[in-house]
Design brief:
NADH_UbQ_OxRdtase_su1/FPO; transmembrane helix; mainly alpha; globular; transmembrane; Complex I subunit 1 family protein; membrane
Length: about 290
């Protein structure tokens, strides 16, 4: 019975994550517009844009780039599927990193100055957020004694009770992963990017649609990790987790509309400081009380 439930969770993620991710993008646009004194587009506009991209002809730079983009989508879906199946959280994060490498390689294969610059900045962003991602996995293990997502969920106490600093640090790096200001350096949905669209400059048509779809899958997975900090063996913790996820996403939208974009040097400094202060100190204290 447990295996059936796990399979249903994976099937739900594969089928429903695009819908949830698209709705999140739609509410992101709507809320951002209201913050800027505009009416904003419909919450369904991201779906209209995605369908239009799938209908357009794709201008292919090279076949290698297309293969790498499809690999990016595949590994993102695999990452989320493994997470919602209740697998090893460390393996989940490694798969997420591998997906990011595919995305960077696809930009490098285009031989475009804008794509190459975007790839270099994406590497910088990975250097900024990967330490905190690794600390999150280690923190889950120390607090629950297991890397298994199922064991973390079945714990009597929520992981955030032992990992408040790592939780704050993880929310901090989500600004990078969601490609929000002030850390939307490699590519952005705003018009202020001096590299046109950075990583995705040379992508078009259904290939660009696959990238957008991958981001929707990724966003739902990352918010699932946020919920993992909250969920425990009690039923009501799931309700609290959903509330925390919604508040966290709204906070990311607010930060996106309040803070201007910074240089990559500032991104590295601030992210590593947060990782050191919030993450490492949290782990040191945790190892002493456990």
């Amino acid at each position: 019975m447990e295996l059936i439930w796990r399979i249903l969770w994976v099937a739900g993620y594969v089928l429903l994550a695009p819908l949830l991710g698209g709705l999140l993008a739609g509410f992101d646009r709507k809320i951002s517009a209201r913050m800027q004194g505009r009416r904003g587009p419909s919450v369904w506009q991201p779906f209209y844009d995605l369908f239009k991209l799938f209908q357009k002809q794709s201008v292919v730079v090279n076949n290698v780039q297309d293969f790498l983009v499809y690999g990016f989508l595949l590994f993102i879906v695999f990452t989320g599927g493994l997470f919602f199946f209740g697998g090893d959280i460390l393996l989940v994060f490694f798969a997420l990193t591998l997906a990011g490498i595919f995305f960077i390689m696809s930009a490098c294969s285009a031989n475009s100055p804008y794509s190459s610059m975007g790839a270099q900045r994406e590497l910088m962003q990975m250097m900024a957020y990967e330490p905190m991602v690794l600390l999150a996995a280690i923190g889950f293990y120390i607090s629950t004694g297991s890397f298994s997502v199922m064991d973390i969920i079945a714990a009597k106490e929520s992981a955030i009770a032992y990992l408040p600093g790592i939780f704050i640090g993880f929310l901090f790096i989500l600004t990078i992963k969601f490609r929000k200001s002030p850390y939307d350096l490699s590519t952005t949905h705003h018009a202020h990017q001096e590299m046109v669209k950075g990583l995705t400059t040379e992508l078009s048509g259904n290939i660009l649609a696959c990238v957008e779809l991958s981001h929707w899958y990724e966003n739902v997975f990352l918010l699932g990790v946020v919920g993992l900090f909250i969920v425990n063996s009690t039923w009501w913790s799931w309700i609290v987790a959903v509330a925390v996820i919604l508040v966290s996403y709204f906070l990311e939208i607010l930060i996106d509309n309040v803070f201007p974009r910074v240089k990559w040097q500032n991104m590295l400094k601030t992210t590593w400081v947060v990782t050191l202060v919030a993450g490492v100190i949290n782990l040191l204290i945790l190892t002493m009380i456990k």
